[in-house]
Predict the structure of Thiol-disulfide oxidoreductase.
Amino acid sequence: MSKVILFDGECSFCDKSVQFIIKRDPEGVFKFASLQSDAGRQLLQEYGVPESTDSMVLIDSGKYYLRSSAALRICRHLNGLWKILYIFIVVPPPVRNAIYGIIAKNRYRWFGKKDSCALPSPDVRKRFL
């Protein structure tokens, strides 16, 4: 299975993040599903991701990654200088996740919540589960 990103489908920041990733992933390394979708819920259960998870999840090579670990592993595969951010993987997870947690905790307040998603083009639609 290819690399799958599960995201909060109600979060405007998460939606913008998915669009950001798609633009920098022309090879189509990543597939996407919202946490709220049937496919997303099935993958969470299949990989044993804690039910309380409400942040971005990366499923890659039979493992799942949460919070900053997911974000940094995603950056490693993007075109451009974003790959450089992967060096922060050496920072201890509690430190990285504290910063990630501030953004995650405030994402609805800072970026809003969505009622619906924009319909992607047919090429991009193929990348959603």
In short: Helices lie at 12-23, 38-46, 67-75, 93-111, 122-125. The chain has five helices and four strands.
